[in-house]
Amino acid sequence: MSCVSRVISDCVNCPVRGSSRLCDVPDHVLREISSEKRQLSLDAGSVLYREGESSKRAFVICKGEVKLTRSSADGSKTLLKIAESGELLGVGELISGKEYVATAEATVETSVACLGREQLFGIMGRHSIAGTRISQFLGSECVDAFVDVCFLRQTSSASVKLGQFMLRWIEDHPSMCGQWISIPYTHSDIAQMLGASRETVTRLLSGLQKTRVLEMKRKRVRVFNLAALKQTANQPALLDSHDLSKSSWTLGLEKQVGNEMANRYLPTR
After folding, report:
1. pLDDT at position 266, please?
2. How many domains, the chain?
3. Are residues 137 and 7 part of one domain?
4. Do 86 and 179 lie in a common domain?
5. Do 158 and 130 belong to one domain?
6. Domain end call among 141, 171, 191
7. Residues 82 and 174 occupy one common structural domain
8. What is the pTM of this model?
9. 237: domain CATH number?
């Protein structure tokens, strides 16, 4: 395993710039972020930070994948998510001054940009747009965490949980019905996140494929029948096959949380 630090200044012309909230800022702000951050190159298996460590940096995934795991009392590890290009890591811990809540490990060759606490706070203080983007990200994280808690407290069957899991992933990729969508999770990963066996997940996915609800292979998925997937997830069919955007309730909650955090933490201009 290796982790190499180097400076990359061409963030303005980065091909994945639009996929990250922190990078979705005017050019002059992004140039300042470029001058402040450090770039890390990680091999597959390299650990970016460990659960329980003091948070010293926040990260943006420029390329690759990072899995987040948390240890249980018996020493086993639980997969929380697999973060992809454009996603932010460690921001909540850094801002709150808390320890990292999970271990972040690269699953493939990965490049990340990192900012220390003083650097991040300085950029947020000087540029309200950067602070707004961070607030939006944290608001979205709060909503996702709330949905995850509700998801875990449900006593639904494995088929319902799988349907809800796939539906949440599809909601993040609007206007992609019938098209291949990259998904970083294997059958084993999904099983671990749902608290089911790999065999159960494979059997249920096979059933969805046979009925032409969806197709999944080689970490790609495409949905043919969104209404049927919603029925499997035991959710009302509020969206048709040509409108895969998030529900108004989810978007409204994200906006409300993001605005409240911005009003509380951002300087008044």
Report:
1. 53
2. 2
3. yes
4. no
5. no
6. 141
7. no
8. 0.75
9. 1.10.10.10
The secondary structure of the chain as a DSSP string is: --EEEE-----TT-TTGGG-TTT-S-HHHHHHHHHH-EEEEE-TT-EEE-TTSBP-EEEEEEES-EEEEEE-TTS-EEEEEEE-TT-EESHHHHHHTPBPSSEEEESSSEEEEEEEHHHHHHHHHH-HHHHHHHHHHHHHHHHHHHHHHHHHH----HHHHHHHHHHHHHHTSTT-TTS-EE----HHHHHHHHT--HHHHHHHHHHHHHTTSEEEETTEEEES-HHHHHHHTT----S-TT--SPPHHHHHHHHHHHHHHHHHHSPP-
Full residue range of the structural domain in which residue 136 is found: 3-141
pLDDT in tens, 29-65: 999 999 999 999 999 999 999 999 999 999 999 999 9
Is residue 185 over pLDDT 50?
yes
Residue 170 confidence (pLDDT) = 82
